[in-house]
Amino acid sequence: MMNLFNVYPLYDIELVKAKGSTVWDKNGQEYLDLYGGHAVISIGHSHPTYVKRMTEQLNNIGFYSNSIIISGQQELAEKLGRVSGYEDYTLFLTNSGAESNENALKLASFHTGRKKVVAFSKAFHGRTAGAVAVTDNPSIVAPINDTSHVSFLPFNGIEGLEAGITEETAAVIVEGIQGVGGIQVASDAFLQALRKRCDETGAQLILDSVQCGYGRSGQFFSHQFAGIHPDMMTTAKGMGNGFPIGGVLIAPHIQASYGLLGTTFGGNHLACTAANVVLDVIQEEKLIENASKVGDYIQKELKGIPGITEVRGRGLMIGIEVEQPVGTVRDALLFKEHIFCGYSGKHTLRLLPSLAIDQKIADQFLQSLKTVLAN
After folding, report:
1. Which pTM value belongs to this model?
2. Is the pLDDT of residue 40 over 90?
3. 3 state SS of 371
């Protein structure tokens, strides 16, 4: 009998149903989902508009390749440009965050004719060859993944940028808010200094917005708090509310040509339908404003809870530094309080809920966390 390649440590939980921010396992146990499967569930599980339009699309046509017109792609580009404020950019569609970062790095190298890349401490950009090379975790970099062209600078460190980013640098890639790195927010001054240094050297600035984008921070892209325009932004995670889709938003000075990039599944009919529904619901239900409002409320309330040493993040991307080992806290929340949360490192609890959660859900979590930290 063939078994699965055993790379995921699994909870002994099988989920069979989901609605909004509630999920149920096969035994009928109900859980509150404040993690959304790594920030993927942006508008809530099984949103009725999402289910309806995905079903309609599947009944019409689910897939064909990029050799024909797929009108949903242009609809998505126009909608994404309008909602994000980047209407003069172009869009290349992919299937994942890692693939988006791969293509952004490749475009930067094509555009500049250069090879060197600057990334930052505790960065996570994916597991494929180019993306893992700019990820600050040697344990997932295989010998085949060449890293000789990559240098890492301190995240949020402005002083080293002049020496670290030069006329040999093709790309600078940075997360607006580090996810795996522990919900570390790139300061406005740091992002502004990066933009300035890239302008001076011709290096292309790539904002990895895979986890922190799509309204999660309270702006469409978290770097918009700093008032900068990157040369490229990469997206995925919440873009399709569970259907695999990613994208690269590309500034006008980077030119396309036939065959420059390509993908079989990227931008297929179902993926574009999913992404278009997500943007419609984000606008109709004012979810970016909600993320800001509910996120601010949660962060304010967290700061008064004993056992919490620091609260980081923006909007509904929240890192909670706890005194005790985070694994104990996360397990108590999951198995006693029946709440899904994430974690990073040894002491950081990670919240990445649907952008549609309300104060009632926030209060339920806050009360459960108080209970767990008090025991």
Report:
1. 0.97
2. yes
3. helix
